[in-house]
């Protein structure tokens, strides 16, 4: 039974790690570190649906209670359905810009009568063995996060947060800065971030973000974000390898 959706909705300070390397060992190692969740990125990577499911299995195989989320490529209902059928705890949907779009996403991720998600046996329901039970609890247990990363998304944040079935918002600082013509200048986003936080919190909806460097972690906490992704697997690898290389080069000078 998934506990992450309840924790996020309650505003618990959940912490996650971003998975962009499509190997199960990477997902399993992050899960072994005790993160509350990992986000498997199926938008900006070459990961197939089969890879997503394999990484979800790796997270589930680790000790502890880490749960997998998937950042999908878009809001296509068929894609959302198939990803949820892999048994992950929820989805993060990028580039959400209007309340109508958010309501469509909520509809596609819920079973009738609350939505239009198709029903079939899958890994999520133990391949159909628990389908009746899963059908009854799935709408409450799946986490649906709308990613705000454009100027339009900021403008319509209140409508997006108000959509029944959207559990949280997630600010994407890189794309948001690009949308505003200030790519990479995330320190200039205070006005937009405050607007999203105020709109969501007025609707009692939590908001998360990703820290693109260690300095952002404290900054996002102080800004008022409710949960965070605190790093990306590829960055961990690059930073560690670069540090080791510099250490050697300094030693032989």
Automatic annotation (TrEMBL):
Keywords: Lyase, Metal-binding. GO terms for cellular component: cytoplasm. The keyword DNA-binding does not apply. The keyword Iron does not apply. Residues 16-236 form the HpcH/HpaI aldolase/citrate lyase domain. GO terms for molecular function: aldehyde-lyase activity; metal ion binding. Pfam families: HpcH_HpaI. Belongs to the HpcH/HpaI aldolase family. This is 2-dehydro-3-deoxyglucarate aldolase/4-hydroxy-2-oxoheptanedioate aldolase. It comes from Haladaptatus paucihalophilus DX253. The lineage of its organism: Archaea, Methanobacteriati, Methanobacteriota, Stenosarchaea group, Halobacteria.
């Amino acid at each position: 039974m998934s506990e992450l959706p309840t924790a996020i909705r309650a505003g618990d300070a959940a912490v996650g790690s971003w998975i962009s390397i499509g190997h199960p060992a990477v997902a399993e190692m992050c899960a072994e570190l005790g993160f509350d969740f990992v986000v498997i990125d199926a938008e900006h990577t070459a990961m197939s649906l089969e890879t997503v499911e394999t990484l979800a299995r790796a997270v589930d195989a680790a000790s502890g209670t880490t749960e997998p989320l998937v950042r999908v490529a878009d809001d296509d209902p068929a894609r959302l359905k198939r990803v949820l059928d892999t048994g992950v705890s929820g989805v993060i949907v990028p580039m959400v810009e209007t309340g109508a779009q958010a309501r469509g996403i909520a509809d596609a991720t819920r079973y009738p009568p609350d939505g239009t998600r198709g029903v079939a046996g899958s890994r999520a329901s133990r391949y159909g063995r628990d389908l009746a039970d899963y059908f009854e609890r799935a709408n409450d247990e799946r986490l649906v996060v709308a990613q705000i990363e454009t100027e339009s998304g900021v403008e319509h944040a209140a409508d997006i947060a108000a959509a029944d079935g959207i559990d949280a918002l997630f600010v994407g600082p890189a794309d948001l800065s690009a949308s505003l013509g200030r790519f990479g200048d995330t320190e200039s986003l205070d006005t937009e971030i405050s607007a999203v936080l105020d709109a969501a919190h007025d609707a009692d909806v939590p908001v998360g973000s990703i820290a693109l460097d260690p300095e952002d972690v404290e900054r996002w906490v102080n800004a008022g974000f409710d949960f965070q992704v605190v790093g990306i697997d590829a960055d961990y690898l690059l930073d560690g390898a670069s540090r080791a290389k510099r250490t050697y080069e300094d030693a032989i000078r």
